[in-house]
Write a structure and sequence with these properties.
With 313 residues, this protein is α+β, with helices and mostly antiparallel strands. Helix content is 17%, strand content 35%. The chain has 6 helices and 18 strands. The radius of gyration is 20 Å and the shape is globular. It starts with 7 loop residues before the first strand and ends in a 13-residue tail after the last strand.
């Protein structure tokens, strides 16, 4: 099976009215599609990068799925110490490059695969079936366990969003019951309503404290390819060891000149880097000057820097 690009939801500030909509929790994790054909199981993320070795818990398809020929769509999550999904934690698994450390990381970062769609079943594409039919099929072929769960659907979207806000979680996804799965497209049949905002930004520089990175300078590209400074942050959920690892990575891409369209003010002692590394940032809002308010690091993510665009915000 050749990997496909996943269907994506459209941002929305409001919850749609009508009986043709259901709501699901928007899990703060990594999108993973599972491709199983008889004894072969492969995992790919939304960019079609393979993750089969990263999540061996999912590859035991016969432990949770009655079909041996299937494509499943879902979100891999890891729980933080507070019992809530933590993007930073799951990226410790997804961002692993030295796979000889996988067993150790897997023990310290257990994952759960939250399945919410099925596109292919027993030799046939079913992505054009309405969502409610695909959702029913999932309940027939998937047997949940500690690592595998089905994402529940509810009709009380407002109540779900309020519960998500109380828990400080990411948001909800609204899906039209009659909608097909539009492979590789972003359609308003799926809407996401977020509790907080996040973006993926490019790192353009850093500052040091005691020879370790203590803040990173962030940027987004405009349509002409110029990188605009949008703020800096030194907060997040990173450990001292992870800050040291980041220091080593960024020192390998140090540059003589800043990469931004305009040199950021108040960063006279910053060290500049080539704009190659990207990071997911959680923030409260945009300021009038075009900077992030209260940004914090969620995790480092493998996205091409040129895809980190101002127009997406």
């Amino acid at each position: 099976m050749e990997p496909i690009f996943a269907m994506e939801p459209v941002n929305s500030d409001t919850i749609p009215m009508g009986d043709d909509w259901i709501a699901q929790v928007k899990w703060d994790g990594v999108r993973i599609l599972t491709y199983a054909d008889n004894q072969t199981v492969r995992l790919y993320n939304r960019k079609k990068n393979e993750r089969t070795l990263h999540y061996p818990e999912i590859t035991n398809i016969d432990h949770y799925c009655s079909s041996r020929s299937v494509i499943l769509d879902g979100e891999v999550i890891a729980l933080g110490k507070n019992g809530k999904p933590a993007f930073h934690e799951v990226m410790r698994r997804d961002g692993l490059r030295k796979l000889d450390r996988l067993k150790m990381i897997a023990e310290s970062v257990p994952i759960i695969y939250m399945i919410f769609d099925v596109l292919y079943l027993d030799g046939e594409w079913i992505n054009n079936k309405p969502f409610h039919e695909r959702n029913e099929i999932l309940t027939q072929i998937i047997t949940p366990n500690d690592q595998i769960q089905l994402v529940p659907s509810v009709t009380e979207a407002e109540a779900l969003l309020n519960a998500i806000k109380e828990q400080g979680m990411e948001g909800i996804v609204l899906k039209r019951n009659s909608s097909p799965y539009a492979i590789g497209k972003k359609r308003d049949d799926w809407l996401k309503v977020k509790n907080y905002r996040d973006i993926i930004a490019v790192i353009g520089g850093f500052t040091l404290g005691h020879d370790t990175v203590n803040s990173i300078l962030l940027g987004l590209y405009d349509s002409e390819g110029a990188l605009h400074y949008i703020g800096h942050t030194g907060t997040g959920k990173m450990t001292i060891s992870e800050w040291k690892d980041l220091t080593s990575e960024l020192k390998e891409i140090v540059a003589d000149h800043h990469p931004f369209k305009k040199k950021p003010q108040r960063h006279a002692h910053a060290t500049w880097v080539r704009p190659e590394k990207t990071v997911k940032i959680k923030f409260a809002e945009w300021t009038e000057s075009g900077a992030l308010r209260q940004p914090s690091i969620e995790g480092f993510i493998d996205v091409p820097p040129e895809e980190c665009l101002l127009e997406k915000t």
